[in-house]
Amino acid sequence: MKNKEISLFIVVLLLAMVWGACGTAGGEDPGREFMPDMFHSTAYEANIYDYYYYNTWGTQEEYKKYAMPRKPVKGTIPRGYAGLSASADPEKDMTYYEAMPLNGFVPYYYEDTEEERTRAMEEITVNPFPITTEGLVRAKELYDVFCGICHGEKIDGAGYLVRDGAAYPAQPANLLLPEFVEASEGRYYHAIMYGKNVMGGYADKLSYEERWQVIHYIRSLQAKEAGLEYSELRNTFNNSIAGSVATSGKMDMPAHDGETGDHSDQSDASGNEQHH
């Protein structure tokens, strides 16, 4: 009889424990979880930099390369890029990584006024991207699509819209004239951002990097006309003209992918209105 009472007591105790364990949470009672890993998945932070947590990077410059977003899934385009991201090519020059923002976006701190255009011309003097053969090839394609129809394949202002008897009312700028050859990089970048006279802006059509690559291509044609070299191996063009700075250095580049610039009138030697 005694054993029977003990057994009954144990059964009742177990039932009470189970009943209590199955009770719902409420008030100040958080309830109980016997297998929390079945209810709560392990949280992972997006874009964790393994090199940071493992403390295995070298110099500060090397860290940015390691901190770039991971290589995108094949056939996809990362947010903020018009094409394959820099992280897809680990052999790229470090100067490229320093110039290219992680998300492809760079603010532009100049308004769409004549005063701000002048300020941009004075302050933006260096192309932040290195000259590369690959970049010049891509830039030629972009120039032909967006610029060549007006400025011509030789940047002489003889594009399709004005040559061969065309009646386009505005004469595109001849970028081979000394005025443009000696101009700073800021004049070109600002014109691309906001346009000039009848020329519209291309900030929504060319990415941050593409704008600078097109400027490289324009410079290469100016150098070719002057019998100078402007290539990945050698640049004798920038050091040969007043007001220019070699492209090998870094630049504290202000920028903005949607923005504000200027459009003032100017004329070529024949008195025709130019746009650039």
Describe this structure as you would to a colleague.
With 276 residues, the protein is an all-alpha fold. 36% of the residues lie in helices and 3% in strands. The chain is built from ten helices and four strands. The strands form two sheets. The chain has a two-stranded parallel sheet with strand order 1-4. A two-stranded antiparallel sheet has the order 2-3. A hairpin with a 2-residue loop joins strand 2 and strand 3. Helix 5 (114-123) crosses helix 9 and helix 6 (133-146) crosses helix 10 (208-225). The protein starts with a helix and ends with a strand. Mean pLDDT is 75; it is low at 82-88 and 240-273.
Task: Using brief descriptors, characterize the structure shown.
276 residues, mainly alpha, two-stranded parallel sheet, rod-shaped
Characterize this entry briefly.
This protein has helices at residues 2-21, 50-54, 60-67, 94-99, 114-123, 133-146, 148-151, 178-181, 185-194, 208-225; strands at 171-172, 195-196, 199-200, 274-275.
